[in-house]
């Protein structure tokens, strides 16, 4: 089901999400479906979107959903960085469509997590996928890209495609 994406300024976006527990297992597929449907709806409306964090739709659990070459349901992720190399990116967010923020992100990251089947997984990330999942991971800790702005001049409004149906 398509859920409302919480917008910049909503206090719930700044809360730290709780780990997924065994008691949450019966809800995982429904949560993943809601994240999937919401992501596809955002794509239809704005022509963008590869991933969404559960807190953005009001689920205060450590779950990320990514749809690229396939579906990834990322549960209780732990991110680490193999080196200190950073690069500057324009970061956008479903919680503030049309606003981009200049931030510094790690060029490479390692993401350890559990998939929806309960299997341990590891992703070695570089470039845009590293940046994307750092952004989504921040949501789990109540951190928005606006809080990582390089400086006070790092906020940029962009023109977004919008489906006017």
Q: What's the count of strands? A: 8
N-C termini distance:
19 Å
**Strand-pairing-aware structural class:** alpha+beta
Total helical segments:
2
- CATH homologous superfamily designation: Peptide deformylase
Mean pLDDT score: 95
Shape: globular
Which range does the strand content fall in?
25-35%
Number of domains: 1
Q: Over the alpha carbons, how many angstroms does the gyration radius reach?
A: 15 Å
The CATH class assignment is Alpha Beta
Helix content: 10-25%
Question: Major sheet: order of its strands?
Answer: 1-2-3-6-7
Provide the succession of SSEs.
HEEEEEEEHE
The CATH architecture can be given as Alpha-Beta Complex
Low-confidence stretches: none
């Amino acid at each position: 089901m398509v859920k409302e994406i919480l917008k910049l300024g909503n206090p719930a976006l700044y809360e730290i999400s709780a780990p997924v527990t065994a008691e949450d297992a019966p809800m995982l597929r429904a949560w993943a479906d809601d994240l999937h449907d919401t992501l596809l709806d955002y794509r239809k409306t704005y022509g963008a979107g590869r991933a969404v964090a559960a807190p953005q739709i009001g689920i205060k659990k450590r779950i990320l959903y990514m749809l690229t070459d396939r579906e990834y349901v990322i549960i209780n992720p732990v991110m680490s960085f193999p080196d200190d190399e950073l690069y500057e990116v324009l970061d956008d967010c479903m919680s503030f469509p049309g606003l981009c923020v200049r931030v510094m992100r790690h060029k490479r990251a390692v993401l350890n997590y559990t998939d929806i089947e309960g299997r341990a997984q590891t992703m070695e990330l570089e470039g845009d996928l590293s940046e994307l999942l750092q952004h989504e991971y921040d949501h789990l800790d109540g951190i928005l890209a606006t809080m990582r702005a390089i400086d006070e001049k790092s906020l940029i409004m962009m023109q977004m495609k919008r489906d006017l149906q």
